[in-house]
Amino acid sequence: MMRVNLFISSFRKYKRGFAAAISFLAFAVVFTISHRILWYLFVDDTNSYTRITLHEMYHQQENIDVLFLGSSHCYRSFDTSVTDRLFETNTFNGGSSSQNWDGSLALLKEAQKQYQLKKVYVEMYYHMAGSNYMERSDLTSTYLISDYMKPSFDRVRYLLNASSPDYWIHGFFPERRNWHKLFERLYISGLIKKKSSDSYKNFEYVGNPDTDEEYYAGKGFVANRRSVRAEGYAKSTHSDSGAKTFSQDDIKSLKSIIDYCKKHGIELCFFSAPMPDFTLIDAGEYDSYVTYVTEFFREYDVPYYDFNLCKEEYFSYDSSLFMDMDHLNMYGAARFSEIFSEFFTGNIKAEDLFYSSYQDKLEAAGDRLYGLVYQIEYMEDKKVVSFEAVQNGEFDAVASIYKTVEGTKEAVLIQNPGSLEPVSLPAEETGQLHLYIYKEGTKEEATNEIVISY
Asked: Does residue 441 sit within a domain?
């Protein structure tokens, strides 16, 4: 009789356990389905480059031998059609917008899970240095990666370490970021229509290479045809100082990348992609960053090369190779990809390619004006636009200034060739200023053609 009672008791206990397991499984299934439906309804990723990049990374037909990682300076700088040809292997561009080094680490691990990586190149854009991950408030760059990672403990760790707990819900449940769209019927219906298209379902490339200024060109590379007119750089604020150092979070991520590559026998190198001299001169103290980063990686016996120190006979810093004040366009990317590949395949020597410092490069460049930082001061009856030259060397810039009032096509001369003095304009007037800057004592050919909206 006792055995019968024990059997009944055990059966009831197992039955309760089985029922609890079934209930949990049913909850998990309903929760997952609800999560996917809400993501589909609220998260607009129909123009996301990273969605396509990670899909491609997970579905390469051959091994990824060479992987590039980093911010937009990575995904806009490496044309994989060029690097494939010159490295003579399958290369992949794993860059994403504002990708920090914890993001690079996460993608490195994702790629190595599926492929046998041989070489990894990690980009070191100076602006990314110095952040405290727990103080992050804009997690867009993190979500660009985490949203498309496969479910894994690595994805969970990446999100947990990327920010304070205040933002975890937005990381694990992307639909929560757009909760305010709940009652916007047109937004939801429009998004359903876009996501129902074959192009979205089939992960077709964003942009048309035949007609669009910018388009996704494959294997992580984003091509852009835009070119900055003749040294036509202008902005309303100064660049962040180039005297950047790593935060403790940066150091932890970088050391983890180094350790992971050593553990898996992956050849590792860090680099900085070319930027316009306008940005670096305006930032100032860029050599301090180069020295700091070089010495940091030397301690771990890992190389670092800064391609902002390239000699002009190898890579021209002509503004026509850049799409804006930070990034290469498709023509600059093709040239940089060629130089980068030739260097790392042993066809160019370091002493031939690089100056020993950024200051040495500027000394070799000589007197040159790269662009303007401008300020607009608003007064009751007028607005005054003042200019500050970003230049190498001590000399006075001479400029002719025209204005084109909004709604008209005529360019009106408002300053004959003269020094860059402030310009007064009617308070209510809007339009564009056109500045043509010449070398002193000549008007034969403008060295800079700058347009400023006012």
From this structure: yes
